[in-house]
Design goal:
2 domains, 4 helices, Alpha-Beta Plaits, RRM_PARP14_2, 139 residues, Nucleotide-bd_a/b_plait_sf, elongated, alpha+beta, 3-stranded antiparallel β-sheet
Length: 139
């Protein structure tokens, strides 16, 4: 594993905290600004949210601050670093998508990617499985 911490933090058990409330809470804890310094993606299906920091911060320290924060505890939320992955599933892809396009897209630094070792296209499901060479591309 790389010594570099993930730029993303997972918040679980978020149902008691509305998305805009969560964003303000994370701004208060981090001292940063949503959209400019970090993004928040809410995943209601699993009662979680992922904060990804655009601005470089010590995410391990941020997770520790969150775990000790009074409001986070009141909401009974938990925070942990998002683990790196070698493989992701891309969904809702257009019929015309090619493995070459997906490879170039997910290798783009602008898209948070890294070197791709394999792309498996599943046209009937409008999805693809993208496998990375390293623990880099995981957005």
């Amino acid at each position: 594993d790389s010594a570099e911490a993930s730029p993303s933090v997972v918040f679980e058990n978020i149902e008691g905290c509305a998305p805009n409330c969560l964003q303000m809470l994370l701004e208060n804890i981090s001292g940063l600004t949503v959209d400019a310094d970090f993004t928040v993606e809410v995943i209601p299906e699993i009662n979680a949210a992922v904060a990804t920091f655009i601005k470089s911060i010590d995410t391990k320290e941020f997770v520790e601050k969150c775990s000790q924060h009074k409001r986070v505890r009141e909401f009974k939320m938990t925070a942990r670093l998002l683990e790196s992955t070698h493989t992701i599933k891309a969904e809702n892809l257009p019929d015309s998508i090619s493995t070459d396009y997906l490879t170039v897209y997910f290798e783009s630094a602008r898209n948070g990617g890294g070197p791709v070792s394999d792309v498996q296209l599943f046209p009937k499901e409008s999805s693809a499985i993208v496998t990375f060479c390293h623990h880099k591309g995981n957005t």
